[in-house]
Write a structure and sequence with these properties.
Blueprint (H helix, E strand, L loop, with lengths): L1 H13 L1 H5 L3 E14 L2 E17 L2 E14 L3 E18 L2 E19 L9 E3 L2 E20 L4 E12 L3 E13 L2
Antiparallel strand pairs: 1-2, 1-9, 2-3, 3-4, 4-5, 5-7, 6-7, 7-8, 8-9
Protein backbone atom coordinates (compact mmCIF):
# COMPACT_ATOMS: atom_id res chain seq x y z
CA UNK A 1 0.00 0.00 0.00
CA UNK A 2 2.88 2.37 0.82
CA UNK A 3 4.47 1.66 -2.56
CA UNK A 4 1.22 2.48 -4.36
CA UNK A 5 0.88 5.75 -2.42
CA UNK A 6 4.53 6.65 -3.14
CA UNK A 7 4.02 5.83 -6.83
CA UNK A 8 0.90 8.04 -7.00
CA UNK A 9 2.72 10.91 -5.24
CA UNK A 10 5.70 10.62 -7.61
CA UNK A 11 3.45 10.58 -10.68
CA UNK A 12 1.59 13.63 -9.37
CA UNK A 13 4.82 15.56 -8.73
CA UNK A 14 6.21 14.69 -12.16
CA UNK A 15 3.06 15.98 -13.86
CA UNK A 16 3.23 19.42 -12.15
CA UNK A 17 5.45 21.02 -14.84
CA UNK A 18 2.99 19.88 -17.51
CA UNK A 19 0.05 21.35 -15.59
CA UNK A 20 1.98 24.57 -14.88
CA UNK A 21 2.25 25.39 -18.59
CA UNK A 22 -1.39 24.62 -19.37
CA UNK A 23 -2.98 27.77 -20.84
CA UNK A 24 0.24 29.81 -20.41
CA UNK A 25 2.02 31.97 -22.95
CA UNK A 26 5.12 34.09 -23.36
CA UNK A 27 5.30 37.37 -25.22
CA UNK A 28 8.23 39.50 -26.38
CA UNK A 29 8.26 42.60 -28.53
CA UNK A 30 9.26 46.16 -29.20
CA UNK A 31 7.78 49.42 -30.34
CA UNK A 32 7.94 53.18 -30.12
CA UNK A 33 6.66 55.45 -27.39
CA UNK A 34 6.33 59.09 -26.45
CA UNK A 35 6.78 59.92 -22.78
CA UNK A 36 6.53 62.93 -20.52
CA UNK A 37 8.22 62.96 -17.15
CA UNK A 38 9.40 65.76 -14.93
CA UNK A 39 10.30 68.70 -17.14
CA UNK A 40 10.62 67.07 -20.48
CA UNK A 41 9.40 64.86 -23.24
CA UNK A 42 11.22 61.90 -24.75
CA UNK A 43 10.47 59.64 -27.67
CA UNK A 44 12.30 56.37 -28.04
CA UNK A 45 12.09 52.70 -28.86
CA UNK A 46 10.85 50.39 -26.14
CA UNK A 47 10.85 46.67 -25.48
CA UNK A 48 8.84 44.25 -23.38
CA UNK A 49 8.66 40.62 -22.32
CA UNK A 50 6.13 38.84 -20.20
CA UNK A 51 4.30 35.69 -19.20
CA UNK A 52 0.57 35.20 -19.15
CA UNK A 53 -1.94 32.65 -17.94
CA UNK A 54 -5.57 32.12 -18.95
CA UNK A 55 -7.45 31.69 -15.68
CA UNK A 56 -10.98 31.80 -17.14
CA UNK A 57 -12.38 31.36 -20.67
CA UNK A 58 -12.22 35.09 -21.48
CA UNK A 59 -9.59 36.33 -18.98
CA UNK A 60 -5.80 36.37 -18.73
CA UNK A 61 -3.36 37.61 -16.12
CA UNK A 62 -0.05 38.86 -17.53
CA UNK A 63 3.11 40.13 -15.88
CA UNK A 64 6.55 41.07 -17.03
CA UNK A 65 9.21 43.66 -17.78
CA UNK A 66 8.98 46.80 -19.92
CA UNK A 67 11.65 49.29 -20.98
CA UNK A 68 9.43 52.38 -21.20
CA UNK A 69 12.10 54.67 -22.67
CA UNK A 70 15.85 55.04 -23.03
CA UNK A 71 16.73 58.47 -24.37
CA UNK A 72 20.32 59.69 -24.75
CA UNK A 73 20.86 63.08 -26.38
CA UNK A 74 23.15 66.06 -25.76
CA UNK A 75 21.28 67.44 -22.74
CA UNK A 76 19.03 64.51 -21.85
CA UNK A 77 19.82 61.08 -20.51
CA UNK A 78 16.66 59.37 -19.24
CA UNK A 79 15.91 55.69 -18.79
CA UNK A 80 12.82 53.96 -17.37
CA UNK A 81 12.56 50.25 -16.64
CA UNK A 82 9.39 48.79 -15.16
CA UNK A 83 7.58 45.71 -13.96
CA UNK A 84 3.89 45.32 -14.71
CA UNK A 85 0.95 43.16 -13.73
CA UNK A 86 -2.24 43.29 -15.79
CA UNK A 87 -5.60 41.64 -16.36
CA UNK A 88 -6.62 41.08 -20.00
CA UNK A 89 -10.18 40.57 -21.20
CA UNK A 90 -10.45 38.93 -24.62
CA UNK A 91 -12.84 38.25 -27.46
CA UNK A 92 -11.59 35.51 -29.78
CA UNK A 93 -12.41 34.39 -33.32
CA UNK A 94 -10.66 32.28 -35.98
CA UNK A 95 -8.25 35.14 -36.83
CA UNK A 96 -7.02 35.85 -33.29
CA UNK A 97 -7.93 37.62 -30.08
CA UNK A 98 -8.96 41.21 -29.49
CA UNK A 99 -8.13 42.23 -25.93
CA UNK A 100 -8.09 45.11 -23.51
CA UNK A 101 -5.56 45.42 -20.70
CA UNK A 102 -5.83 47.01 -17.24
CA UNK A 103 -2.94 46.90 -14.82
CA UNK A 104 -0.36 48.48 -12.56
CA UNK A 105 3.22 49.49 -13.29
CA UNK A 106 6.19 50.05 -11.00
CA UNK A 107 8.86 52.03 -12.87
CA UNK A 108 12.43 52.95 -11.97
CA UNK A 109 13.36 56.22 -13.69
CA UNK A 110 16.94 57.47 -13.71
CA UNK A 111 18.96 60.07 -15.59
CA UNK A 112 19.18 63.80 -16.07
CA UNK A 113 17.66 66.66 -18.06
CA UNK A 114 18.49 70.33 -18.44
CA UNK A 115 16.56 72.55 -16.01
CA UNK A 116 13.81 74.57 -17.70
CA UNK A 117 12.32 77.88 -16.64
CA UNK A 118 9.85 76.02 -14.39
CA UNK A 119 12.69 74.40 -12.41
CA UNK A 120 12.74 70.71 -11.50
CA UNK A 121 9.21 69.31 -11.45
CA UNK A 122 10.55 65.95 -10.21
CA UNK A 123 14.03 64.98 -9.11
CA UNK A 124 16.76 67.14 -7.61
CA UNK A 125 18.48 70.12 -9.20
CA UNK A 126 22.25 69.80 -9.59
CA UNK A 127 23.69 72.80 -11.41
CA UNK A 128 21.90 73.12 -14.74
CA UNK A 129 20.47 69.58 -14.59
CA UNK A 130 17.50 67.89 -12.95
CA UNK A 131 18.74 64.49 -11.79
CA UNK A 132 16.31 61.60 -11.40
CA UNK A 133 16.52 58.36 -9.50
CA UNK A 134 12.86 57.74 -8.71
CA UNK A 135 10.51 54.84 -8.20
CA UNK A 136 7.10 55.62 -9.72
CA UNK A 137 3.79 53.77 -9.50
CA UNK A 138 1.26 54.05 -12.26
CA UNK A 139 -1.71 52.59 -14.05
CA UNK A 140 -1.74 50.80 -17.40
CA UNK A 141 -4.53 50.76 -20.00
CA UNK A 142 -4.17 49.05 -23.35
CA UNK A 143 -5.95 47.70 -26.40
CA UNK A 144 -4.55 45.12 -28.78
CA UNK A 145 -4.97 42.22 -31.16
CA UNK A 146 -3.11 38.89 -31.13
CA UNK A 147 -3.29 37.57 -34.70
CA UNK A 148 -2.93 33.82 -35.33
CA UNK A 149 0.06 33.00 -37.54
CA UNK A 150 0.58 29.31 -36.64
CA UNK A 151 -0.88 26.74 -34.26
CA UNK A 152 0.78 28.13 -31.09
CA UNK A 153 2.14 31.42 -32.44
CA UNK A 154 0.54 34.85 -32.61
CA UNK A 155 1.60 38.29 -33.78
CA UNK A 156 0.72 41.01 -31.24
CA UNK A 157 -0.28 44.58 -32.14
CA UNK A 158 -1.08 46.87 -29.22
CA UNK A 159 -1.43 50.41 -27.95
CA UNK A 160 -0.76 51.18 -24.29
CA UNK A 161 -1.06 54.24 -22.11
CA UNK A 162 0.73 54.45 -18.77
CA UNK A 163 0.05 57.30 -16.36
CA UNK A 164 1.67 57.69 -12.98
CA UNK A 165 3.18 59.73 -10.20
CA UNK A 166 5.27 62.85 -10.89
CA UNK A 167 3.31 63.46 -14.11
CA UNK A 168 4.57 60.30 -15.82
CA UNK A 169 2.71 59.83 -19.10
CA UNK A 170 3.72 57.20 -21.67
CA UNK A 171 1.95 56.30 -24.94
CA UNK A 172 3.29 53.26 -26.77
CA UNK A 173 2.61 51.38 -30.00
CA UNK A 174 4.06 47.86 -29.87
CA UNK A 175 4.51 44.84 -32.11
CA UNK A 176 5.37 41.51 -30.55
CA UNK A 177 5.40 37.76 -30.80
CA UNK A 178 3.30 35.54 -28.53
CA UNK A 179 3.91 31.84 -28.10
CA UNK A 180 1.27 29.62 -26.42
CA UNK A 181 2.99 26.85 -24.42
CA UNK A 182 0.06 24.43 -24.54
Amino acid sequence: MKKLGLLALTAGLLSLPVQATDKMYGVVGSGYGDAEYGNGEVGSANLFMGLGHQFAPKWYVEGGYKRLFDETEDNTNLKADSLYLAILGKAANQYGELYYKLGVVSADISGKQVVTTEGCAAGEQSGVFCEYDDGVLGGLVGLGFDMNIARNSMLRFEYEYIGGEDDLSVSQFNIGFRYNFN
